[in-house]
């Protein structure tokens, strides 16, 4: 029975989870494949200090990734270190050595994925990327094959478990953002430098990959409007609940008459929607198709074992292709070639908005704000004010009827100059159509 050999580079959280599954679940994997998928080489900078499972005597254990990539018996290289520096070198070298590649590297794929795929085609090797988005949710396989016959019109996702954990803790316990972030760091949900998560950049990379699959466009992450969750407070949830909404960091991609509108930002969503029930570190993706209409995918968005399952599943798929010698591979981006995306400014977005203010209370504030809104053709919908004894820092909310984001931004910029404001206004879209 011909076996297939893999080499793992990177034994951090995802790499360790992948290795555990490959070793503990080896018999089940072999039963599904009809042959053995062996770990032929492992690499980590601190490999000498790691507690590793027992390997076959001839398994390579090294701190030099080049030994894995050049190993004559390794047919698939799993790059699990992340980042865009050494990881790119590893993938380029693996392809140059005729090895197929499995990677969970969302940042690298968002920036260079289509280019790497073109190189793998030229080298007649495969590239598998399921673990790069949403951990244990097989969303890329869904878009690539499961609903390939449909034409996607919009996609909404909660794609960062750290942000979702923080927001749901603020919502459920009324704890300030800074305190919840500190607890998330203590629990290991957030990094010591949490900016990639809480400022939306991690989710932006994932949305770029999803958009490529869903719409066939080559997306530059920098083209996606991105806003993080640092300004969300317990009082924002109190007001959102009065409106029967909640707040989540929403990744959205939707077709408009002018083209694709892309954003990663906190938004109000109705509490009756299924996305509102996604709490803690879970992820979810809601896909709307022209023919199949709505489908929903939910699960663990990160973690050693959920993401490890995605990596191992990709290793298994590539191993089958190596065994069969099939040249007819499905692009990991679901399209034979990606089109060149023409950025559409998020200012074209049209929706109702939630405007939260913190003011030093005095007569005439609402009238002055209403005048600014009216000058931009924006109509008030409601004014909400929870009783407060602190008149020097009084929060209240104005909701407005649907308007363009361009008009909202102009109004907010003018409002920010008012001398009664304690803080700049917070403007969040209200995604009532979910």
Please, could you describe this protein's structure?
The chain is an alpha/beta fold. It folds into 3 domains: 4-135 and 304-339, 3-Layer(aba) Sandwich (Rossmann fold), CATH 3.40.50.720; 139-300, Dihydrodipicolinate Reductase, domain 2; 349-430, Alpha-Beta Plaits. The chain has 14 helices and 18 strands. The strands form 4 sheets. It has a 6-stranded parallel sheet with strand order 3-2-1-4-5-6, sandwiched between helices. Strands 9-11-10-7-12-13 form a 6-stranded mixed sheet. It has a 4-stranded antiparallel sheet with strand order 16-17-15-18, sandwiched between helices. Helix 5 links the parallel strand 5 (100-103) and strand 6. Helix 1 crosses helix 12, helix 4 runs parallel beside helix 5 (106-122) and helix 7 (161-173) crosses helix 8.
The structural domain count equals 3
**Range of helix content:** 25-40%
State the CATH superfamily name of the largest domain: NAD(P)-binding Rossmann-like Domain
Q: What's the CATH architecture of the largest domain? A: 3-Layer(aba) Sandwich
Low-confidence stretches: none
Mean pLDDT: 92
Based on CA atoms alone, the radius of gyration comes out at 24 Å
Query: What is the tally of beta strands?
Result: 18
Distance between the termini: 51 Å
The class by helix and strand makeup works out as: alpha/beta
β-strand amount: 25-35%
The description of the largest β-sheet is:
6 strands, parallel
Total helical segments:
14
> For the record, what CATH class of the largest domain applies?
Alpha Beta
